[in-house]
Every structure is written in C-alpha cells, then in structure tokens.
Sequence to fold (385 residues):
Amino acid sequence: MGLLLRLQFVAPVGTINYQFLLHGHSHTAMLGWVYLALFSLIYHFFIPKNGETAQKFNRLFWITEVAVIGMMVTFPLQGYAVFSIIFATLHIFSSYYFVRLVWKNQQIDSLAERCLLKTALFFMILSTCGIWCLGPAVGLLGKTSAFYQIAIQFFLHFQFNGWFIIAVLALLFHQVQLKVNDKTFLSFYRWLIVGTVLTFALPVSWYLSSPVLTWANGIGVVVQLIAFAKLVLMLRPHIGVFYARLSTIEKTVYSFALLSLGLKVVVQLVVLFPDMALLSHQIRNFVIGFIHMIMLGIITGFLLGFLLNVNVINRKNRFSGYGIKIFLMGFVLTEFLLFAQGGNLFFNWNLIPMYHQNLFLSSIWLVVGIIMIIFSTANLKNSLK
Fold:
C-alpha cells in the first residue's frame, strides 16, 4: 500500500483516492503489523499459558484481526465513513479488552519489565482519547480546526512514543535479561515518562502558537536525551553477554534498531530551535522520514529481533536473512532520499533529480524484503510440521 502511494507521484492511477489509501496504509501498518506483533509477543513472554486464558487471547486475536482486515479494505475505498469507523471502533474496544486481560493475567517478577509494560498499556488507552475527540471536533469546529488536528496528533504521539516504544523497551529488557536495581531503573523511568509527555508540546505548537509550548518541548527533548543516556548505561554491562548468544542477523537487526533509537533522539534535538520546530512540520519530507524512522527503524527493527529470537522468523534460514538485509537496505535508501530532499528544500538548494522515481524504486526493496521474510516463516511452519 505504501509502494502504491509512492507510485501515485510517478504514474498516477486515476481510480485511486490518495488520501483514502493513505488512511488504509497507516492503519494497517500501525494496527495490523505493530499492534498484532506486540499482542503476540506480550502474550508469549508475559502471560501464563493455561487453557481458559489462552482461549480468551486466541478469540481476541482473531476479532482484532477481523477489525484490521476490515480497516485495510474499507479505508482505501471510502476513507473515514460508516464501515471503516465501525471496524476502527471494534479495534479500539478490542484493545481495551486486551489491556484488561494482560493486566489481570501477567506474571512478571521484574519491576522494570512490569512497570514498562503497564505504562505502555496505559499510554495505549490514553492515546485513544484523541480518537474519541474527533467526532466532537468535527461537529463543533470542523476538520480544519486546531482542535481536530491536535486530537489526531495526540493519538499518534502517544501511540508511537508511549505505547509502541515503551512496549518494545519492556520486551527488550526481558530479552536482554537486564538486571538493574530498582533505584537505577526508576530514575530512568521518570525521565522517560516526563520526556514522552513534554514532547507532545511540539505537534501542539504546529497549530497553537505559544512560548510555553516551545519551552515545554525544549525541556522534553533534553529530558528524553537524558533518559536515552541512562538506558545506554543500563544496557552497557549486559549487551556483550546478550550479543554473544545471538546469530549474525540478530546482531545486525538489534544494532540497527538501537542506532535508529539514538538517531531519533539526536534528530529531535534540532527542534530546540523554534524555526526548525516549525519547519519540521512544514517540510513533509522530514515528517514522513521521521515517522518511518520510528516505525521501520526502531519499532520494526526491534520486533524483527524479537521474532528472530523466538524463531518465528527462522534465524538459520538464509532466505529470511537476505530478506531482512534487503528490507534494511530499502529503509536506508528511502530515509536518505526523504531527508536529503527535505534538506534541499530547507536550504533552497537544487532538488534531487527524478526524486519521486528514485523513492519509488527504493521502496520496492522494502516490499521485496517483506515478501522474502513472509515466505521464510511459511517454510519454517512447514518444517515444524
């Protein structure tokens, strides 16, 4: 779907509504890929496997799957309309029940893992407040209002930076078997939460002008940097032992994800300058590049690592290894083009020749890599039989 969006700038297909397809792409990526992967991994690592609990999670998984497929089909056809809203609402209520099941059934001894997981689930619920505000926003002020736009940004910010990233950190702590005293962890945790909340001031500042928002975001970015430094210090004594038991492709994926997380923190330091904070929204290349850095670099990077660890993706299969490398190559190429073109627009330099054509061609590698990974998991399933 993302590849088809980029094709629209090269050879437009007249029957396709770009905005509708964009909604379908974003909902499928966030709720179909990331949400369902986190659902499965959280169940696998943190939930005891008794019969009744397993049945509840299994039924909920397939109800959620129906909601995702419904959104995948209806959003490209009609955008936000009756059926797409029904499926989106079904997903929201399914996610609430998921939180209830995890909260009730989790058995986690580690304070760090338990605290991060519950916080991630809290942010997931909190993010949906933005969705519930969309109806009143449209009815009272319209889709062009600041209220409507801020409600969307509220959902996206706390989905990406709250639910997704913090859930990934909970899984990372579990995989690394991070042994850290409670005082050290809680220090990191407080900085992490404060940074997550305060950096929401940046998307708000795109629609409401106030020096308070500028200061809040600036403090949030610095706090986020401190949290990342504390995370590195916690991981450093354990990462060598963790890497020693990984395959080459697992080391590549985890290193890539950690590097992307560091780059995210560094990139956000740029918005300490008010002019750059405004341009970060106005230059669409930067916006798309940053979102994909989080989705494909950080979150997908870690998820691929976790799936390799549990052998859902066969780490010994060369086909899956090549697929992951091709996917990462496509990610690097597309990110380079997005940020380079954004830089050219910012500095008023010459634009990249055949930019959209090159971006489309680079995106093909993402699709090829994903298809290869899917086929490797199918082969693994057959071999297990």
